[in-house]
Amino acid sequence: MDVLADALSVAGVRGTVAVRIDGGDDWAVSWARNADAVLYAVTTGTAWLTPDTGQDDTPVELLPGDVILLPTGAAHSIASDAHRTPAPCDTALADHARRAGAPMRLGSGDTRTHLLGASYRHDRVVSLHVFDLLPPIVHIRAGRVNSALDDTVRLLTREICDPQIATTVVLDRLVDVILVQLLRRWLSTCPDLARGSWLGALADPLVTEAMVRMHQQPARPWTTETLARDLTVSRSTLTRRFQDVTGQSPGAYLTRWRMDLAARRLRDTDDSIETIARSVGYTSVYAFNRAFRRTRSQPPARFRLSTR
């Protein structure tokens, strides 16, 4: 089992909105935070992106072939030059261009820059959002982007230019692919930055295997002792390694994973609460209700009603 793939499938992309941007001379637009994540890919020309993250808001130059991700959908501006004052984006114009499959035209004169912009949302009932663990900006420069990512961006561009039946589904899946490709590249170049978060597990074979066991059998009555025994290591070794690379204990991670699985089933199925409780390792409905309320601030039955 691929733990990352499993986590991404549970917290999958929803509601992708994408648009082409054609920039001429002297343009700058700002975007409020209105999505879980935003990404841009530059096909020709250059642009400057200035994030509003409350941290380092230095303008970032985007060159042809660059892909940049704002994992938390931070407010930002994008412009033809670094110091131009942006105006709020005309969202009606952007929506019209998107629906028509036409580019959103910015600035004056001949087109100098072609951009692809996309925003998306995670599944709201899932608490483990892998991309929330990334730094505020992930910038993959053209010289470091592999051909697979280039190919996926081209497919996304074609789908935006020529929307057809089930285009929304295709956009969601293509953005899923782009995000995985970005994540692979970031993990390979910045492994130390993942330490102390869930992503840190991917660099430690022991912790990854522990997660695999829990993902494969969420209903098994795991304890740290039984998990360590399955992995033929000591309890203290597993606890220390798990805490070091993920920032939490094996038990805390297991509870979070179980509650995410349960939340999806409560929303998406008519299975009884008892059935769902058993499927994630609780033989007592009372114990499941208590654990679910502790993590979601409401009991399962109320949660089910509120998400439908």
UniProtKB/TrEMBL annotation:
<keyword id="KW-0238">DNA-binding</keyword>
<dbReference type="Pfam" id="PF12852">
    <property type="entry name" value="Cupin_6"/>
</dbReference>
<feature type="domain" description="HTH araC/xylS-type">
    <location>
        <begin position="208"/>
        <end position="306"/>
    </location>
</feature>
<keyword id="KW-0804">Transcription</keyword>
<dbReference type="InterPro" id="IPR050204">
    <property type="entry name" value="AraC_XylS_family_regulators"/>
</dbReference>
<dbReference type="InterPro" id="IPR032783">
    <property type="entry name" value="AraC_lig"/>
</dbReference>
<dbReference type="InterPro" id="IPR009057">
    <property type="entry name" value="Homeodomain-like_sf"/>
</dbReference>
<dbReference type="GO" id="GO:0043565">
    <property type="term" value="F:sequence-specific DNA binding"/>
</dbReference>
<dbReference type="InterPro" id="IPR018060">
    <property type="entry name" value="HTH_AraC"/>
</dbReference>
<dbReference type="InterPro" id="IPR018062">
    <property type="entry name" value="HTH_AraC-typ_CS"/>
</dbReference>
<keyword id="KW-0805">Transcription regulation</keyword>
<protein>
    <submittedName>
        <fullName>AraC family transcriptional regulator</fullName>
    </submittedName>
</protein>
<dbReference type="GO" id="GO:0003700">
    <property type="term" value="F:DNA-binding transcription factor activity"/>
</dbReference>
<dbReference type="Pfam" id="PF12833">
    <property type="entry name" value="HTH_18"/>
</dbReference>
